[in-house]
């Protein structure tokens, strides 16, 4: 059973396995590059003693708050030897594969131990929880969302707090699991906490006598867990929310990325029955197809609900799934790609702290996981059905699950990394404390190649800017932004790169270029080969700097050490 999960994980990622450092996930090139960088940072923490919570090697001179940027330290640090000896590309594809398979395996283990009697039922639940459309869509680069193998153990330990003698021991174990999950993905921890809160309230309503009998030790256990977690997380969370380069809020409105009602009965583009055009109209992006269960699965859920209705715990799980599903639909109902004007309850909490940091559609990952648990419970009960009804049940299960099974993720070939980077020729020109400025300047969508060079180098040199979340324009505007505050030379080069027109340069443009390069502590400016409008960009850089480029290691390079003197 465990090998089947691993095999399916390899099948989903096989196009990337064929060339881990030479290919990019086609649906999410930006986040692929970002998490390569995070894995390289984990390697530097272990092998170079870098600060795990902050890096000054990117976005020079301001740096980047790692804790405020999905640190994945619980993944990058243990996998640092893989990154160091086999390369960051191998570490990335290995973590994506093990994230899918490991999540399935963790749910299989917890289901088999605590929820169901048969291995087959546990295997079905694990299969869905690990390889549902939401998980496969996030496998397009989001190693933090596919690595959900801690979640089932958190759920298990929370439920065990009601048992006698679990207050201290269970509370400490739960607290340690919470700490671990914080360093994997805080969003998933928030979703899990909200789901368990709704579950507990619903269960108390359905079975209040039993709830009262265990409430005291359950709440004491939660208190021990909270105390344990806060004691260990106090400084990391302080760094995240108040430290250097921390921010508040997201760079988009809460209603921008929401769950479309029709997506519940549709199929994701990476499902066997998927249709890319339909999925495109009903999803926020290829990485956010968090529902897409298919109409047969909706019918199967009605069957499972009927079979499990007498169980207060199953009903409470259904309530939790419905509540989080409604939350994922955002402040206004969206149907078929259009907003209907129907206001939803999420509008009341959209601006609350922490909630305003979440991409709303991701709340739907909770009901997706709950579906897996309900399928396992129903499959476990199926053995008690009469023969004909049992056969009908398994036919319905197959019709619901098989069309949703995943296809391999699409990839594209990455631009070839030049010898200037791979053979470390840059070391002759970039002394310690100075930066390598690649053009297009590293940004989300426009500077992917420069970010990829940086990650593949192991962050061995420093760069200005990059793709991350930082305050938009501190100290006046601390709203989260995917871009560092703009500088004149960035704006100028972006315009040239987009339109291909060499501008008439002024003395002010040249002064701004030297000022920006000085701010970035630049040693060299390197033009990315084969970038769009390369000739226009090269001519513009030469005009700004007043020096010709050198041809070194497959790139055009401008040595600006004689023009830029940051110490002065």
Describe this protein's structure.
By secondary structure, the chain is an alpha+beta fold. The chain has two domains: 2-404, no CATH class; 419-559, no CATH class. Helices cover 53% and strands 8% of the residues. The protein is built from 22 helices and twelve strands. Strands 7-10-12-11 form a four-stranded mixed sheet, covered by helices on one side. Strand 4 (332-335) and strand 5 (338-343) form a beta hairpin. Keywords: Membrane, Transmembrane, Transmembrane helix. The chain crosses the membrane at residues 85-109, 166-183, 189-206, 218-238, 291-309, 316-334, 354-379, 391-409.
Structural topology:
Blueprint: H1 2-17, E1 23-25, H2 29-48, E2 54-55, E3 64-65, H3 73-76, H4 80-86, H5 88-115, H6 119-131, H7 133-138, H8 143-146, H9 151-160, H10 167-182, H11 186-206, H12 208-242, H13 276-282, H14 295-308, H15 312-328, E4 332-335, E5 338-343, H16 365-382, H17 387-401, E6 411-413, H18 419-422, E7 435-439, H19 448-456, E8 470-473, E9 477-481, H20 488-499, H21 507-519, E10 522-527, H22 534-545, E11 550-552, E12 555-559
Keywords: Membrane, Transmembrane, Transmembrane helix
Transmembrane segments: 85-109, 166-183, 189-206, 218-238, 291-309, 316-334, 354-379, 391-409
Descriptive labels:
elongated; two-stranded antiparallel sheet; 4-stranded mixed beta sheet; 12 strands; membrane; 2 domains; 22 helices; 568 residues; transmembrane; 53% helix; transmembrane helix; alpha+beta
């Amino acid at each position: 059973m465990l090998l089947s999960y691993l095999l399916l994980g390899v099948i989903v990622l096989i196009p990337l396995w064929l060339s881990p450092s030479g290919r990019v996930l086609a649906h999410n090139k930006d986040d692929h590059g970002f998490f390569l960088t995070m894995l390289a940072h984990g390697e530097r923490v272990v092998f170079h003693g870098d600060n795990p919570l902050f890096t000054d090697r990117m976005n020079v001179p301001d740096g980047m708050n790692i804790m405020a940027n999905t640190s994945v330290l619980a993944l990058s640090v243990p996998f640092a030897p893989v990154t160091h000896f086999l390369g960051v590309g191998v570490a990335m594809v290995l973590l994506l594969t093990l994230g899918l398979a490991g999540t399935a395996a963790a749910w299989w283990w917890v289901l088999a131990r605590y929820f169901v009697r048969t291995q087959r039922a546990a295997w079905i639940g694990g299969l869905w929880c690990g390889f549902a459309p939401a998980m496969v869509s996030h496998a397009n680069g989001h190693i933090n969302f596919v690595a959900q193998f801690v979640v089932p153990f958190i759920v298990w330990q929370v439920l065990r707090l009601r048992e006698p003698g679990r207050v201290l021991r269970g509370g400490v174990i739960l607290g340690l699991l919470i700490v671990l999950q914080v360093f994997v993905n805080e969003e998933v921890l928030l979703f899990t906490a909200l789901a368990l809160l709704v579950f507990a309230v619903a269960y108390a309503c359905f079975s209040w006598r039993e709830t009262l009998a265990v409430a005291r030790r359950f709440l004491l256990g939660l208190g021990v867990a909270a105390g344990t977690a806060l004691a260990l997380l106090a400084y990391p969370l302080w760094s995240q929310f108040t430290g250097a380069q921390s921010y508040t809020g997201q760079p988009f409105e809460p209603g921008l990325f929401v769950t479309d009602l029709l997506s519940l009965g549709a199929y994701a583009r990476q499902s066997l029955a998927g249709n890319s055009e339909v999925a495109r109209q009903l999803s926020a992006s290829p990485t956010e197809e968090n529902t897409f269960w298919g109409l047969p699965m909706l019918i199967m859920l009605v069957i499972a609900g009927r079979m499990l209705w007498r169980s207060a715990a199953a009903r409470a799980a259904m309530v939790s799934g419905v509540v989080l599903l409604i939350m994922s639909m955002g402040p206004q109902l969206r149907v078929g790609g259009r907003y209907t004007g129907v206001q939803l309850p999420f509008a009341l909490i959209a601006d609350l702290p922490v909630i305003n940091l979440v991409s709303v559609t991701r709340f739907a990952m909770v009901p997706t996981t709950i579906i897996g648990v309900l399928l396992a419970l129903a499959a476990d009960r199926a053995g008690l059905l009469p023969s004909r009804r049992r056969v009908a049940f398994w036919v319905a299960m197959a019709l619901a699950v098989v069309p949703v099974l995943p296809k391999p993720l699409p990839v594209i070939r990455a631009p070839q990394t030049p010898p200037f980077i791979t053979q470390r020729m840059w070391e002759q020109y970039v002394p310690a404390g100075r930066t390598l400025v690649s053009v297009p300047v590293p940004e989300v969508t426009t500077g992917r190649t420069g970010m990829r060079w940086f990650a593949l180098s192991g962050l061995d040199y420093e760069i200005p800017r990059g793709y991350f979340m930082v305050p938009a324009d501190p100290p006046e505007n601390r709203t989260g932004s995917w871009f560092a505050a703009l500088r004149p030379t960035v704006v100028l080069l972006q315009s040239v790169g987009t339109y291909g027109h060499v501008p008439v340069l002024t003395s002010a443009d040249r002064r701004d270029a030297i000022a920006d390069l000085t701010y970035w502590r630049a040693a060299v400016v390197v033009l990315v080969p084969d970038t769009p409008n390369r000739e226009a960009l090269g001519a513009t850089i030469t005009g700004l700097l007043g020096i010709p480029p050198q041809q070194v290691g497959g790139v055009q390079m401008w040595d600006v050490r004689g023009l830029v003197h940051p110490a002065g």
